[in-house]
Write a structure and sequence with these properties.
The structure holds three protein chains of three kinds. By secondary structure, chain A is α/β, with parallel strands linked by helices. Chain A contains eleven helices and 14 strands. The chains are: A alpha/beta, B alpha/beta, C mainly beta. Chains in contact: A-C, B-C. At the B-C interface, α5, α6 and β5 of B face α1, β4, β5 and β6 of C.
């Protein structure tokens, strides 16, 4: 059944004016985690994952990513009228992260700000909302951030991949953008594959239920609907970026959709740093923009538990080159690494050691 | 202004006084000083202290000490200038007597540090720096001094071991002071082996956390002889300040407050550094000793450490320092240290320093430094002619 | 750190807001209302670059209350491009990775270690300037 009328259209054409990324420098070797829990160290899904420093959290990381986005362009702070931070690791349970970011960036006080929560889809949800703000004419520019210091229960399988990082995207009118949004849609159902209660520290997940019924179902349907709406096929895209819970899922999803290895390669970061949750697909998109050329078309599909996907078709304009002005790239952050093989230090960095 | 003399001194031993409170320490020193002076009731009492509020939850300190010393009714005020409080309280008492406002004034410096644990004291000491721009960033007072020490080593080409003479001399002299906290000599190996507090500053570069109180009684010089045969005159007294933070200074390795207050006392007394027989300096850290020697004109810039290496600071040297152990070995109960210095200069000039006694001394100098030398109080004392 | 004080300190802690003398152009951090250089009382707010170099550094092995994570960390005296000097904590660097003269840049981090219990105090720290891969820029 071909999807019809599912594309979300804006009043004005919208694009990505700028972007910025952040990944903390700490990496924990997953064999250290496996060794602690008596697992076979050869069976870990990735070799190392990113971990925040003791003085870092979603707010500080969002700030650096957003600063990178603003350093690439010259836009008066008063023109940026919205800041949204999508995350499931908020520094405060109640108190917006977005106001901290807005204050540090000097965007206060006439700015809309809120935190978005939708598991790993929170960042792309912030992007959709920013597109709507700019597309409706409510704001010349709007900033959307997806960032996490993902939490996992010690000993849980998530512990091998739950990582820290994310990216910020500044949206503006398409005419001045570095990449244009050709179309986007959202696909959401009530699929309880992963959740956390207010007073729990760590999420529970549905093990194998998180696969076919959750990640694959939503990612596939959202992407296929978008391609149908736009009358495109995977061949029309030079690059594709998905949410990246682990390497296996991403490879299978790309294959099922008909995207080749070379199409997903530049944005495929989970083998290098792990799953950065709400930051995952955004960081992948930032990595693609780091190397994309004018005219390149990018397919972007996020996934968040609970569950849903945002899918977008993006085409690069010649203005993207002007953004390569010395601001650190995703690869710069990935190359900056301090690796640790000490599970105790890992627990300390993750603020899991309770002191009174 | 009229000349002022010190007619009596009193102190508690310096150390960890688990059985004595802030008020007990202060009262003990006040009573000892008044007994030494033969004074029954002073006209006023000034209490020098840095941390009574933060560490002991007690402000209105001077009133408390006056009350428990048995003198409710007299004028009493607390004087605070961070680690220089003990010098500042003598300066305040001196101004009051010199002005003619009062005749008999007791100045007591007191600090009770051991009631609060390590990180509480560390936080308390950090309040001597800029609360918003240094302490709130978790930068300890020792770390600020360590920044100066590394800069000094780098600029003038010294190694850590070059600072050891300050420490070895202080401990050597502390052996002869029954009131000192540390009465054991140490050698260069001990110094080099001591653990780091804020690298490059080690435990042995630093003065210890401790309790203590010292008091002196002041009166007009013209009346001094009616109380004691051996009064000591305050030849000069001066305080000067600098920026509270290290950042805004033209040269972080120059203690402008120490320089200005020293220049002022030299001018007041009509003397120069070569006239000074010995110097109780603020050896809270070895780097502070070096910079204090340079600011006061005893050594050229960058030569403070060399001055110590050349044995000048030894008790038989050109300028003995820390003659009864200094802040390093006698101990550094912060708001009391400046008063201990004055008391020790008085003891030396009166020939009452016991085994620590220097031969043939007529003019002694004491300099108490607060914060990152953001305030310095300097006194010159002399035996009356 | 109490709430009103934190709110007042935000311009300096978040954005290195300083004061520049309109008469002699000297920049002061922290801000002051009278110029230390020329005595003028006419000052204007400016935002510092956050780019500077290390003049001296120290490694703290003891920490004040609420700063446990600072044990083993580095503190530095830093001179910013504007000629302003300040003392701040360094982050994302080990003792073998720092030296006098090293170029550093401001980052915003949590200052205290007791954030889980109350107000999270964010403020400036500095880190060695992040290395850029030559290849990434050559593509432009």
């Amino acid at each position: 059944m071909p999807a019809q009328g599912t594309l979300m259209r804006t009043q004005h054409a919208v694009g990505i004016t700028s972007y910025g990324a952040y990944v903390p420098r700490w990496r924990v070797r997953t064999e250290a985690i496996a060794a602690c829990w008596g697992r076979e160290t050869s069976r870990v899904p990735i070799r190392a994952k990113s971990v925040p420093g003791p003085d870092e959290d979603t707010a500080t990381m969002s700030i650096e990513a957003a600063q990178n986005a603003l350093r690439r362009v010259d836009i008066p702070p008063g023109q940026i009228r919205a800041v949204w931070v999508g995350s499931e690791s908020k520094p405060y349970a109640v108190k917006p992260t977005s106001t901290i970011v807005a204050e540090v960036l000097g965007l206060t006080p006439f700015v809309s700000a809120a935190d978005m929560e939708f598991a790993c889809k929170a960042g792309s949800e912030a992007m959709q909302t920013a597109i709507a703000y700019v597309g409706s004419g409510m704001a010349p520019y709007a900033l959307a951030i997806g960032m996490d210091t993902a939490q996992s229960q010690p000993g849980d399988s998530l512990e091998y991949t739950a990582a820290a990082g994310g990216a910020a995207f500044l949206f503006g009118r398409a005419e001045q953008a570095a990449a244009e949004i050709e179309g986007s849609l959202s696909y959401v159902t009530d699929t309880p594959d992963f959740f956390r209660h207010a007073h729990q520290h760590y999420p529970q997940h549905g093990q194998r239920f998180t696969g076919d019924m959750a990640y694959f179902h939503h990612s596939l349907h959202a992407t296929r609907a978008l391609l149908d709406e736009l009358g495109r096929t995977p061949k029309d895209y030079r690059w594709a970026v998905f949410h990246q819970p682990n390497p296996k899922f991403v490879r299978r999803l790309a294959k099922e959709l008909g995207f080749g290895k070379e199409q997903i390669e530049p944005g495929f970061l989970v083998p290098l740093i792990g799953n950065t949750y709400a930051g995952s697909s955004l960081l992948g998109l930032a990595a693609v923009l780091d190397i994309a050329e004018p005219g390149d078309r990018i397919l972007f599909t996020s996934y968040g538990s609970g569950a849903g996907s945002d899918s977008m078709s993006i085409v690069v304009t010649p203005r993207l080159r002007a953004l390569r002005n010395g601001v650190p790239s995703v690869r710069d952050y990935i190359a900056r690494r301090r690796e640790i093989g000490d599970y105790g230090l890992y627990l300390r960095l993750m603020k899991k050691i309770h002191r009174e | 202004m009229r000349p002022v003399s010190i007619i009596g001194v009193g102190q508690t031993p310096v150390g960890e006084h688990w059985q004595k409170s802030l008020r007990e320490l202060a009262v003990e020193a006040v009573q000892a000083a008044l007994a030494d002076a033969g004074v029954e009731r002073p006209d006023a009492l000034f209490a020098g202290n840095m941390l009574s509020g933060g560490l002991c939850e007690q402000e209105n300190l001077a009133t408390l000490v006056a009350d428990f010393s048995g003198f409710p009714g007299i004028e009493a005020l607390k004087i605070e200038a961070a680690c220089a409080s003990g010098g500042a309280v003598v300066r305040a008492a001196h101004m009051v007597v010199a002005s003619g406002a009062h005749d008999l004034v007791v100045a007591v410096g007191v600090e009770k540090m051991t009631d609060l644990g390590g990180d509480g004291v560390t936080s308390g000491l950090a309040t001597a720096a800029d609360a918003d721009y240094e302490a709130a960033h978790g930068i300890t007072f020792t770390a600020l001094n360590a920044l100066l020490m590394r800069l000094y080593m780098e600029r003038y080409g010294y190694a850590r071991r070059d600072f050891s003479p300050f420490v070895i001399t202080a401990h050597e002299n502390g052996v002869h002071n029954p009131q000192a906290m540390f009465r054991e000599a140490i050698d260069e190996k001990d110094f080099l082996d001591s653990p780091m507090v804020a690298e490059p500053i080690s435990i042995l570069d630093s003065s210890p956390v401790c309790d203590g109180a010292a008091a002196v009684v002041l009166c007009p010089t013209e009346k001094a002889r009616s109380f004691t045969e051996r009064p000591v005159q305050i030849l000069a007294s001066a305080t000067a300040t600098d920026t509270i933070g290290l950042g805004p200074r033209k040269d972080p390795l120059w203690f402008e407050s120490a320089y200005l207050s020293a220049q002022r006392v030299y001018q007041q007394a009509g003397v120069s550094p070569k006239d000074i027989n010995f110097f109780e300096l603020h050896d809270a850290f070895t780097i502070v000793s070096a910079l204090s020697l340079e600011a006061c004109g005893f050594a050229e810039r960058g030569q403070g450490v060399r001055f110590a290496q050349e044995c000048n600071i030894h008790r038989n040297g050109k300028l003995p320092i820390s003659t009864q152990g200094g802040l390093k070995a006698r101990g550094h109960p912060v708001g009391a240290s400046g008063t201990y210095q004055i008391l020790e200069v008085v003891d030396q000039l009166r020939g009452r320093a016991g085994e620590a006694q220097l031969g043939n001394v007529r003019i002694g100098m004491a300099q108490s430094i607060g914060g990152m030398a953001s305030v310095a109080v300097t006194h010159l004392l002399g035996v009356e002619v | 750190m109490n709430l009103p004080r934190y709110r007042r300190l935000q311009p300096a802690f978040y954005r290195l807001q300083a004061a520049r003398c309109t008469a002699c152009r000297q920049v002061h951090f922290p801000s002051r209302t009278r110029c230390l250089g020329c005595g003028s009382a006419s000052m204007e707010p400016v935002r510092l670059s956050g780019q500077g170099r290390v003049l001296s550094f120290a490694r703290m092995l003891h920490a004040a209350r609420g700063f446990q994570d600072s044990v083993g960390s580095l503190t530095a005296l830093i001179e910013l491009r504007e000629g302003v000097r300040l003392v701040a904590q360094l982050t994302d660097v080990e003792p073998d990775g720092i030296g006098i003269g090293q170029e550093v840049e401001m980052v915003l981090r949590r200052l205290r270690s007791d954030a889980e219990q109350g107000l999270i105090v964010y403020g400036y720290k500095f880190r060695p300037v992040l290395k850029r891969q030559a290849g990434a820029q050559a593509q432009s």
